[in-house]
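tool_call predict_complex ligand=zinc ion
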Amino acid sequence: MSLLELDSDLRAKSQGWCAAWGVAPLAHQAQIAYSTRQRTSLGRAHYEGERILLNAVLRDPALRPLLEEVLCHELAHLAARRLHGPGIRPHGKEWKALLRSAGHCARVTVPSAELPPIRSRRRRRRRVASGSISQVLLAKVFDGILRIAR
Ligand SMILES: [Zn+2]
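tool_result ok
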């Protein structure tokens, strides 16, 4: 799936973000695909080839706002790299500024309450824990990876 296969609303938003960031061509040059093998992250930006992999759970229409946020999050990684080179921190001030200018909070964790149950490798339903904080799944970002950590 390339960016051209995003629906028109997301395509327009991506073009708007990239244009505002001063990297307009990125909107159609980035390669974006869904991954069903991505079990520990919601999104991942690969600088080489400017590829973005999105967790296939984000195709769920109920997760549309999260899909938009993760797409913006990952595009901002590629944009920050274009604008500032490889020396910056993945979630440093340059990246944060891009996210905020796009109207998204520059968060690196997603509470489990916003996520659907995710199938484990053994095809068992992994229950999303409710209760104590320690049981709550968190999506954490490390070096361009939006991770779900238990
Ligand atoms: Zn990130």
